[in-house]
Amino acid sequence: MMQHHRQRHQQQQQQRRPVPVEEEDDAAAEEEELRLKEKEMKKRERNTRHQQIKRKKKKLRKDIASNLLLTVPDFESPEGEETPNAGRSGESGGDCSGREGRGKREDGNNGPGAKGGGYRDASGSKLGKSKRGKEARKGKESAGAKRNAPDAGRSKPSPRLGSEAKDSTRPKSKEETRPNGKKPNLLEKMRNRLQGSQFRWLNEKLYTCSGREAFEMMQKDDKMFDNYHLGFQTQTEHWPVRPVDVAIKFIQNRARQQHKKQGGEPLRVADFGCGDAEVSLHFSKSSSSAAVVECHSFDLVSKNPRVVACNMAKVPLESGCCDIAIFCLALMGNDYPLFLREAERCLKANGTLWIAEVRSRYSKVKGGDTRNSDFVKRICSDLNFKLLKHDNSNKMFVTYVFEKHGQGKGKANEAGKSSSPQDLVASWPKLSSCVYKKR
Ligand SMILES: C[S@@+](CC[C@H](N)C(=O)[O-])C[C@H]1O[C@@H](n2cnc3c(N)ncnc32)[C@H](O)[C@@H]1O
């Protein structure tokens, strides 16, 4: 019993004995070491995750590049022309953006990479980086407000084409929608971005090269054509009114008039630079309109049997066979006067030339997009047309309706007919490229 007591006493003594200081230090050190190790492990984990994501992104970029990137041929800008700002040119908003963009340059060539670059405010002075951001935001807000305002911009509100009015009913752009309603994933976003920059590059090329060069380029790689049109559609789907719809309406009215006057005689239309041949498709849909409109469509590439692939400076049509020649945003080459001369050849006497172009394209033309501009004067004086109608009430584009003079077939007057193609092109005003907004 006594022994048991003693043992318990000893045990209690031992428990009460204070822990030596060194032991306490060791424990704290051990704990600290453990904490550091844990921290280190977490850091390493984070780094590996970061690396993994980085590698994944890199791989995605590679995949996209190998699947999508078009082979872009070397392309020299024509002599005397400003070198186009390919790839950068579309970064700031232009007139054809469908929205008011960021600072707009006076020369119509927008974008920070352009000569004498930098964004500008409305007064034309350069904007600093932070101011640029503010201005851009302000621009977006005011653009939204202006779009909704009844007297937006300097022109009247854009006329709407009944069911074709685009604002509320327009399909959402590919960035905004996916079939499952989810936001686009990284791959899709990158694909869209790449596609957008290829579109802007192609767009600039088509405005700065000749029709022949454009034809050769597109024929080499027709993926370019698809890419161009995907980008073009993405842009125009934001427009309140698309010029191609205006063209269709114009043809429809004329077809009705002709039908009344001439009975069964079809209205023969040539659509120069038809793109997806929307005009032809429209009139082939209803059998009654197909009976009165016969549409010949021309473009650089033929993606459907309605379209004849050619450079529209020379189309396979007889002289004097058409009632209407349409150029819907199609005066793209730097030798565009040759396209108009070809249209004049194809038109009947008193035939109609219908042109729609983005307004900013006339920024360097004397007289701009008015009815007395150098552009109009040249068409009338060199190609024997008279201006019937001019409409610049739309904020985005201007339309012209000309009538061919005289009785002859393909009778451009002396200046137009006898001058060499080079002389004709050199003597006409240059139209600026249409710069699209990055979307
Ligand atoms: C801006 S798109 C307009 C397409 C269509 N007219 C529309 O409004 O939807 C211009 C079209 O002109 C075509 N184009 C440009 N230069 C051409 C040329 N030299 N010969 C034939 N087509 C040309 C382009 O390929 C493109 O399809």
Automatic annotation (TrEMBL):
<feature type="compositionally biased region" description="Basic and acidic residues">
    <location>
        <begin position="34"/>
        <end position="43"/>
    </location>
</feature>
<dbReference type="GO" id="GO:0032259">
    <property type="term" value="P:methylation"/>
</dbReference>
<keyword id="KW-0698">rRNA processing</keyword>
<feature type="compositionally biased region" description="Basic residues">
    <location>
        <begin position="44"/>
        <end position="61"/>
    </location>
</feature>
<dbReference type="Pfam" id="PF05148">
    <property type="entry name" value="Methyltransf_8"/>
</dbReference>
<dbReference type="GO" id="GO:0008168">
    <property type="term" value="F:methyltransferase activity"/>
</dbReference>
<dbReference type="GO" id="GO:0005730">
    <property type="term" value="C:nucleolus"/>
</dbReference>
<feature type="region of interest" description="Disordered">
    <location>
        <begin position="1"/>
        <end position="188"/>
    </location>
</feature>
<keyword id="KW-0539">Nucleus</keyword>
<feature type="compositionally biased region" description="Gly residues">
    <location>
        <begin position="110"/>
        <end position="119"/>
    </location>
</feature>
<keyword id="KW-0808">Transferase</keyword>
<keyword id="KW-0949">S-adenosyl-L-methionine</keyword>
<comment type="function">
    <text>Probable methyltransferase required to silence rDNA.</text>
</comment>
<comment type="similarity">
    <text>Belongs to the methyltransferase superfamily. RRP8 family.</text>
</comment>
<keyword id="KW-0489">Methyltransferase</keyword>
<dbReference type="GO" id="GO:0006364">
    <property type="term" value="P:rRNA processing"/>
</dbReference>
<dbReference type="InterPro" id="IPR042036">
    <property type="entry name" value="RRP8_N"/>
</dbReference>
<dbReference type="InterPro" id="IPR029063">
    <property type="entry name" value="SAM-dependent_MTases_sf"/>
</dbReference>
<protein>
    <recommendedName>
        <fullName>Ribosomal RNA-processing protein 8</fullName>
        <ecNumber>2.1.1.-</ecNumber>
    </recommendedName>
</protein>
<feature type="compositionally biased region" description="Basic and acidic residues">
    <location>
        <begin position="163"/>
        <end position="188"/>
    </location>
</feature>
<feature type="compositionally biased region" description="Basic and acidic residues">
    <location>
        <begin position="97"/>
        <end position="108"/>
    </location>
</feature>
<dbReference type="InterPro" id="IPR007823">
    <property type="entry name" value="RRP8"/>
</dbReference>
<feature type="compositionally biased region" description="Acidic residues">
    <location>
        <begin position="21"/>
        <end position="33"/>
    </location>
</feature>
